[in-house]
Amino acid sequence: MNDIDAWVWWLVGAAALGIPLVVTAMPEFGMLAVGAVAAAVVAGFGFDLVVQVIAFLVVSVALIAVVRPIATRHSRQRPQLATGIDALKGKQAVVLERVDGSGGRIKLAGEIWSARSLDTGRAYDVGAEVDVVDIEGATAIVM
Q: Is the pTM of this model over 0.85?
């Protein structure tokens, strides 16, 4: 196997590692593919197989050891900007029609919502301010 064959084989290996990266969405395959590209570069400069394998291992392990924990930490963080119904939880609303355990209407974020009381024995009269605890479908749960 001559030098040109070696770097081509490393690039074929990188492409082969890219396929499961796309199919499984596991970033580790991408990191291994980058290691294979590094080995292809080393092979292109004419280094022998041992140096190529060492370059592949060093780059791959370094990426997995450094990038993977950072990516895992970021994937577990909640978005700082709440949108949709998550943005409505914890907001205050004004009662438009009496709200009790069976229903009612509130004005929440400029829109009229159906609502019901979290505590089924509690009722809120027109004009009262309530806190939105949860959203179930199109109904706000208030207290």
A: no
